[in-house]
User: Fold this.
Amino acid sequence: MRTAKVATIAGLTAAVSMVLAGCGSTGSAPAASSSQSSGPLVVWVDAPRVSAVKAFEKAYPNIKVKMDIISDNIGNDALRGKFELFNKSGSGWPDAIFFPTNSDISWASSPQINYTANLTNLVPKSLVNGYAPAAISACEIGGQLRCLRNDDAADVLWYNAKLFQEWGYTPPKTWPQYQALGLEIAKQHPGYYVGFIGSTYTFDRYFWGSACPANTLVGPNTVNINLNSPNCTRMVNLLDPLIKAKVLSTAGLFTTEADAVGAKVVMTPGATWYGQFEFKDAFHVPAGEITASAPLTWPGQNYTGDEGGGLWGVSSHISGQLLKNAVTFAEFVATNPKNQVDLAPTFPAYGPDEQPWLQKNVLNSNYFVDKSQLVSAFKSAVKMVWRGHPYTEFDPDGVWDTTVAPAIVNGETLNQVWPAYQKALVNYAQLYGYNVVTK
Amino acid sequence: MLDNSAQPGITSAKTPSKNGKSVQKRNRPPSKGALILVAPFVVVMALVGVLPAIYALVESFASPTGNGFTAILNYVTVITNFRFLASFANVGLLLVVWLPMMIIGVVGMALLVDATRGRFGRLMMFIYYIPGALAGMTNFMLWLLLIDPGVSPVNFLLRALGATSLDGILASSSNVIWILAAMLFFEGAGSWILIVYGGLNSISDEVLDAAKIDGCSTWTTIWHVKLPLIKPWIGYLALMNFAYGFQIFLEPQVLNEVAQGLISPQWSPNQLSYTYAYSVGNTGAAAALSIILLVITLAIAMVVVTRTGILEQS
Assistant:
């Protein structure tokens, strides 16, 4: 009887636990080699890209489009999971997609997922040559063109020209000048900020442009992660005094706290989209105050960083007319002025669209001041993005958010948290299957 | 949640029959009707519980490349992962904070309601239940609004405590534990008070009257009569909530999104498993971690079941 009771208990607890444990697995399998050649063009875009799809439908009424809207949360893992499942089932892939997170291109073009088609021979050479080499390099993977760049998010120096004039400052040109002015502002005008050091794009903003090797590809599937490089430590030593002087806000860029302190930002390095999306829309700085100057650089190194800038991919699982339609779509949304100039709020990566976009969004705008300086800052920045920071399956900026950002909020210095950040980057690189060198 | 016949601890082993003779219930084979009633559950459980578990077990021994078996390689991969111990430590701490809060809080409030039967008791029960009436995630989103000093309607309280930003609050790992514990308590307490109150209601008046005649005070009655009699309910409460907390996924996952990445995407073991399956693409390792979670949950479930007599007939 006792045995029977124990067996009943064991059976029932096992059953309950199995249900509770929610065990499940998707399994993995190589991508199926099915190839669809006709039917409506299925495109996946985030909400801000819906107008681009509508413009395409208007320009190409003969191509039937089926649009699905995907999450635009940066760093969202769920997208890759969907493609894992599509590979397993052998169907379900969109014919073209806008990747909300740039590092998505690393898994989408990996041998394991192998979603994005090689566009090298599918799009005209002249179109590729229209991009600045630094802008299209994110799509050049293993010698193949695996995507088209939507917009360019190179870093420039944004500043409040009205405050600069009132206080008698001139915009810094180099990082050491930026630090010196930051410390001066801390002393003379406490409560004002010269940048953000919290979550989202902070690594990209400060360390990418400093040519800090956090994920530099040095061989097939091998990355160099060396945060002890002088290129990294010079920026650490530059930022720590600014953090201590409380002129760098610890707020994450997309938080309500950043919006609250935004009006007190005197200057900050930032992407080309900061003017519209941060200073105007989030910080609500009045018109007639904001402008940008050329990217901050280190003496002898003409590099800058990059914060986002979307990518368009085409499916490798289609052929025939459907593939042609998908390529036509990608070319249109990435480069055609009907989208990139007339509709897109972000700075186009495709060179020929730059000037008309700047004319419409900067020179004809009442919001910015010192417009010709801003225009030349944008144009020079897109050519300066350091190419040693590719998109990898682990994102140094994402690891910054979980490792460095909380430590700074809790009062640690960058120098103190730096070894932990190096270790975390190595751990994440290995988790995603990379070989790591640290030199 | 519990139908009366399955409620723990209230079915007598010997039930008087109409003619006054005792019938040995536990030795009687289940009737055809009982089998029909239980069949749909068994079928669904086999399909969505047992089969996936077996599939996960097989997958956990499969090679990451999809060819052949790897013995325990996937288990070694998972156990040596840099987030493995940290994620278990996180849920361990959460359980240490939240489970006692849940058990003491729920049983305490159920006893309070039980002690004040009548209109006031019903009113208290309603008030306790209100947070639980919001569906789990809605409750969670409400909490996110409450703890963000930028938008919270009670931001004066947060500022008085020295909090100026959501980032500042979530950057502290101990704050995350307390916030999750509080969220989980308010998500679940209302429903569980109803269940434990049901247990207290099942105690017959004769027993309580006898306790009173024997001179038991209110406290003695609670301590020596009511609590021992509702032990199976408390065990059930502990078991279900342990399982939820141990395998927590949604709450830290959403918190991670809201916190702009300040909280690790592999905060809990289940999130680590998710990362393996959907981000790294190593489903063998994800399955191995699922099996580890299953075994631990099973072992603890066994202990709770045997210690509290959830399935006892008397």
Chain B has one domain: 83-308. The radius of gyration of chain B is 23 Å. The first helix of chain B runs from residue 32 to 59. Confidence is low (pLDDT under 50) at residues 1-24 of chain B.
